[in-house]
Amino acid sequence: MSPDRPTIALVTSRPQLETGLDRDLPELARSLGVAGADVAVLPWDDPEADWERFDLVVIRSAWDYSERVTDFVAWAGRVARLTVLANPASVVRWNTDKRYLADLAEAGVPVVPTRYLEPGVAVELPDGGEFVVKPTSGAGSRYAARYAQDDHKAAVLHVERMHREGLTAMVQPYMPRMDETGERALVFVGGRFLHAVQKGAVLAPGLAYDDEKTPHPDLRPWQPTPAELDVAERALAAVPGSPELLYARVDLVDETGSGEPCVMELELVEPNLFLDLNPGALPAATEEILTAAQ
Question: Helix 24-34 crosses helix 281-293 at what angle (to 10 degrees)?
Fold first, then answer.
């Protein structure tokens, strides 16, 4: 480790290195290098990686973690004992299980209403309106699907499939305003609001849970409303232990009745930060990462 030239690891996954879907990753590595850091891009499960040699390890596109959650959380704990991990291992442990939505709701943060169905629990589905079924540990809309009322049989089979794999299912009402106003993702870096984007609905009617999905369709820059900023900041303030977060993304949708924003997901582990959609985002993220490495 050098005090003059910080060493930084940007953590990804083996599939990501093959596909290149993370458009932020090469530009972030380049920008950090130009700014004076020694940068390595490594899969989180690289057995040869010497994490202790880095001043800072930043989780970026470890998008396969949801298939090996236990291993990934254990990896985060090991790395955090060797060096500085962003975000912290306690945050990784909490945020990789979407039952954190219940914690946010208990803290008074408006969230999408959610029911959890653990393996061995009877499958009870909503009686009215469209609904969504997905696992509590998932990335890229893995095992997620949207159902109409006459699709109950398919939805039950979906939940039973997850239960056979030991996964807890979560059931939420489909927020119909998403088809009009989309989903808004508010990005924070170094504890400060960076920028926001709007994206279209991921779950189209009839799209099966095991079909490939476009995680962020129809992306465009977005100017958040004061209400959206307020909900996002309240969600971040409700993270247990009030940890320092290097990065965060708060995904919001509109409530069905009031139209007020509520949290769909709070992304604190490996969110896409959409740095290419705002000219000032990459320099700002670079500066905050360098500061965290010092």
Answer: 60
